[in-house]
């Protein structure tokens, strides 16, 4: 039991970690500080999942990669459920689908349930995959009988849940289960909860099965205003999801981000590197297609690898286009926008990079308008 006033999430985490270590309740890997703690009896707690109707009805189950959930991953494989495991810190994608080899023995299934097995016996599942998750199993540092949960403080479980909502893989009716030691079930002040925090419907311990009956709404998508630019840079799949939601017209403004509209109709040439000074606005000669498309700098010089982007909305901002390009992985060396002509030119380091950018940008929408994309010199010839 923790004091209910003046306590923070981190206070609760430290209390749990310290207690599990001091009472020798923790199991490998140790120390459990700054982790979802593994504990003695975790496998027994995982076996309680078999008694839940929600598990019997499950076809696809998402289980976090934490060590104390290894028993749940094995249980899912033994019962021939489709097992999805998030990639660590979402560095390489959203999910891995665990695919044991044909005729896998019990020993092979046990290996598939480990972190090594997730690496060796899995295929990646992306945003475009048709996934319908029936059950979500998450690790916790602390949880209350009301269903309020505290993780290790990095926010990945909350983010994974929100991304699954955004891609249509789960709904508000999808049950969420957590596996913890009995000592991790504590009082959590409601004022500590935030709108992006997930809650749990069932708590499984070595001695108890708790149906929380939690009615607090779960997150209904990614709260972009809580996402930092630093996190966006670390998680490519999050950038792709944001680009998709932006094209759907949703507000995807990030934490601390502000928009500044450009002067109407003014041509803007923007060097991409943040550390460089913005270039001066080109003179009238730069408005010609020859200049904008990168004509030879001298006799025999190679053509610049420029991409034409047309049909830009009247109210489109350079920051909107830059953001979409960044999130699609098509960052140019330089962006030149001609506001009056509703077009822009993107300069890439070579023709191969330009062609790859064209492939990525096909079908890109800003607002309600689909942009036209082509090699700049092909567009000039037309």
From TrEMBL:
Residue ranges of domain RRM in the record: 305-378
Pfam assignment, any one: RRM_1
PROSITE patterns: RRM
Stored Gene3D superfamilies: 3.30.70.330, NagB/RpiA/CoA transferase-like (3.40.50.10420)
GO molecular-function term, one example from the UniProt record: RNA binding
InterPro entries assigned to the protein according to its UniProt record, in alphabetical order: FTHF_cligase, FTHF_cligase-like_sf, NagB/RpiA_transferase-like, Nucleotide-bd_a/b_plait_sf, RBD_domain_sf, RRM_dom
The protein's name in its UniProt record: Methenyltetrahydrofolate synthase domain-containing protein
Name of the gene this protein is made from: MTHFSD
